[in-house]
Input
Amino acid sequence: MDPVTLETDRLLLRAFTPADVDAVYEACQDEDIQFYTPVPTPYRRADAEKLVGEKLPAQWAEDKDYTLGAFRKDTSALVGSYCLTLVSRGVWELGYWAVKEQRGRGYSVEAARALCDWGWDTLDVHRIEWWAMAGNTGSRAVAEKLGFTVEGTLRNRGIANDGKPHDWWVGGLLRP
Output
């Protein structure tokens, strides 16, 4: 599938381009993004270049992972990265990270809702899942505002960038 562009009242969601490499690199210097998401640590500029130039375009072409950058309409500033990733037939996972300076303004809820709505309308989706390392209260707050039901905690589900196992929360959102 070719990348799409989505709009909300305050945001433009679009595929990342080479012009966004610096903004992605800067955002991923945030300790919370490096701890709670599976980005390389330390995060180098070459990681952002590979992500934007190779990995994300390939994922769109494979129809398994659709990632969009969310940008403010008023300033063009990067707000974050939002994706739907195929888990199994009809089940997709919503993933996201937000730029530290853009958090707490409702942008993530707005961007994620637009992406989920696109998913319901475009993809064969009956369930969207959300996963977050226990303790990532910002991610959980976004998921709950989107209507996800937190369904449980999985003990020692994954190894974080600190090399230690951590519990993870899981939630689900069913087709409206």
Remarks:
- Strands lie at 6-7, 11-14, 65-72, 78-88, 91-98, 127-133, 149-159, 165-174.
